[in-house]
Fold:
Amino acid sequence: MIPRAAFRELRSVWFQVTGTLCNLACRHCFNASGPRDPWLASLPADVVLRSIAEAEALGVRELYFTGGEPFLHPEILPLLEAALAVAPTTVLTNGTLIDDRLADALAALAARSPYSLEVRVSLDAATAEANDAVRGRGTFARAMAAIVRLSARGLPPIVTATEIAAPRDGHNLYEDLRGVLVAAGVDKPRLKLLPVLPLGRCGGRAGERRLTPEDLEGFDTARLQCTETRVVAAGGIYVCPILAGLPGALVAGETLAETLMPIALDHAACVTCHETGLTCGN
Structure:
């Protein structure tokens, strides 16, 4: 029997605005994003705007923009502005496209918005050698430059790291990253560490293990983000940011309101969320 989790409340809505289109092809990417032939299309701006309005009517508390690389979307800034009129908004990025002009625009947007703007920048190791082995040559320097630019403008990002790079003996990823950020002039670094997810380019890591009803005995399913989150992506509305675009994660219904129902916990990634307490939110 497949275990299920009841839906509780709509706290967050995610937008997979660029589908799986990205300027990088990181070797651990859970949705296999990249610059060539994205398997999941970008969202038209009108779909995003309509869903923001619906989310507001449903009392949403947070909005998130992800991809792919969201800053490849030609209308990302006006879309962020529309979201920030409704709720605190976060954009997840690899940081490599944030030059001075974009950093200025984001800081100005944050300053005039009624809700807070968060920028999450991905950085997977504390050295260029280790990070670039995962994310591509030059990505460490470009992401660090974005972090410094944003911090200097009063918009310090949340640095998000996936624990894929082999740790150096006697070193701790959290402390190493914190040290690098402080050395770069980021006074109060904010860090979020994530486990490697068993799908996309790391799809062979999970084996065939799936959750069972016994796994949920005594477990509070309110800890699972699928009980309070939905994702708008090409093809419809999905249960969570990890599974966006996958047919098995598509929720029946054309509107957000129609998708607020119990869901089956039948994917390998559900095991990761159950065992680690993973949440994609801030």
Q: What stands out?
A: The longest helix spans residues 139-152. Residues 109 and 222 are 33 Å apart (CA to CA). Helices lie at 45-57, 76-84, 100-112, 128-135, 139-152, 173-183, 268-276.
